Amino acid sequence: MKFVNSKLINGQSITELVVSIIIIIPVVLFLFDLAIMVIAVQTNDNIAKNAARVASQADPLSAKLKAQTLISQARHNIQPFIKSLTMTNYSTNLTNQDIQNWQNNGGLVLHISTTNTVPGTVSITTQIKVQGFIIPWFIASGQNMSFNSTHQYPFSFASYDPAATANPWAIPATGSSSAFNQ
């Protein structure tokens, strides 16, 4: 009876090991890249959403600065695989006349609205660039991949008009709840 020495390494097992490593490493790097891309897209979306929200809560003159400040703070907290984070677009549907009225009146009112809030919306687009291992070589010719996210919020900054005689938020003095049932 002949016993086979289990410590002998034959050429077939080494070949199988090398081939499987050659296949497994790119697959693992691809999955890692995919995870990086998903995290980058979610991060960019959250930053764009928060920047638009912060800008919508500020007065129209400082809204862009508030959004840029939030984005620059977020830039310091991003993961090392994210190469850059920038605000590529800031827009609002306020007219130049609205802005001039705001500046001329000392920031009191743009024009009369039923809620005393600044009328209009603010829209912000952010761009994030990501460096991966495998995916950028196939899709972007080895360059960083970039993802954009746009969010829009209505202004919720409440302007103050000291000349206004009626407060739209005031509860009627009669104590009646009929104003809420209309």
Would you kindly provide a written description of the structure presented here, covering whatever features stand out?
This protein has 182 residues and is of the alpha+beta class. It has one domain. The protein is 43% helix and 17% strand. The chain has 5 helices and 3 strands; from the N terminus they run H-H-E-H-E-H-E-H. The chain has a 3-stranded antiparallel beta sheet with strand order 1-2-3, covered by helices on one side. The protein starts with 10 loop residues before the first helix and ends with a helix. The C terminus is likely disordered.
Explain briefly what this protein structure is.
Helix content is 43%, strand content 17%. It is of the alpha+beta class and 182 residues long. It has a 3-stranded antiparallel β-sheet, with helices on one face.
How many helical stretches?
5
Strand order of the largest sheet: 1-2-3
What is the straight-line distance between the termini?
Answer: 100 Å
**Class by helix and strand content?**
alpha+beta
Q: What letter string, H or E per element, gives the SSE order?
A: HHEHEHEH
Give the low-confidence spans: 168-182
Shape: rod-shaped
Helix content: 40-55%
Oligomer: single chain
Whole-number count of domains: 1
The averaged pLDDT comes out at: 76
Gyration radius, rounded: 29 Å
User: Strand-residue fraction?
Assistant: 15-25%
Sheet having the most strands:
3 strands, antiparallel
* Tally of DSSP β-strands: 3
List the helices and strands and how they pair.
Blueprint lengths: L10 H46 L6 H14 L5 E11 L3 H9 L16 E10 L4 H5 L5 E10 L23 H4 L1
Antiparallel strand pairs: 1-2, 2-3
Helix pairs in contact: 1-2
